Amino acid sequence: xxSDVLDEALDYLADRGPIFRGFLTNxxxxxxxxxxxxxxxxxxxxxxxxxxxxxxxxxxLNGRVDPQRWQDMLGRxxxxxAWQQFFENELAEHPWRDVxxxxxxxxxxxxxxxxxxxxxxxxxxxxxLAARETPLRFRELAEGLALWASWYETLPETPGSAGRLxxxxxxxxxxxxxxxxxxxxxxxxxxxxxxxxxxxAGLLDVEEPLASLPELTATYAALYVAxxxxxxxxxxxxxxxxTGPSAVRLLAPHVSDGTTRSLLRYAWQSAAKIxxxxxxxxxxxxxxxxxxxxxxxxxxxxxxxxxxxxxxVEACLREHALNPQPxxxxxxxxxxxxxxx
Length: 341
Description:
The chain is mostly helical and 341 residues long. It has 15 helices and three strands. The protein folds into two domains: 4-150, no CATH class; 156-341, no CATH class. 57% of the residues lie in helices and 3% in strands.
């Protein structure tokens, strides 16, 4: 990850903003970092040459984040540039890991905003910066945090609740919408749409977050496999239930244990919201290991030209290396076919 290709990619995207195709999130920096981790450096710039065409211009600065009243600017999507400037100043004045720890803890309750993309982009940025500290990577970390802060959105929760359940047991306790009510509207438009969901955040035991993460990501990978191909479903949303919690692993080496526990609590809650709104099949039947050759699946992810496929394949291979469950390989094999452009 000390490759110059990532800095070339970040420089190439420097005048582009956080919006893709008018209303989606810019995945360019995340996909570039994932491709380099997948040892496909040569594919980064060709991918971005096409992807960049659909990115909006960087928004103009039209405000300021007051360090004493920063809460007033949370969730202000029109203040991305102000938040970026704020975080660039913070990173210039303090060690980057201190800034990361302070602000990911503060922002953790609102990581649901824009389908966890602030969390995920910040995770990729932190991993890249830990590999090599360059001005472009510092700026990318500032942009990841700015995306998180400007799209900050909380989900309903029972305050102060602390669970003792494993990921599988906690998932079994989740409320779920009837199938005829599931879909993008309850998922995105009304965070209160699932009755009884307030208790979800407090179900999971987060005292040992890195011990819980393997089962958590394997559970959501299995749910992706079970649901991605069902009629009326959309695999894009289910993907973020894997890549979101997996991003906590990217941040954990650089933040305190307390911050990691908070990040896991809210990443679990957000992924639970996705599955409460989109999982038609919740049986969690055992997943069979597919015929799998790592290089072939990576090549297929590149050939798909889909940024979500690239990110999910990278996350699944990373998780599988730590927890060799077939669900990760099945999810990686499925996504490169399902999202092929």
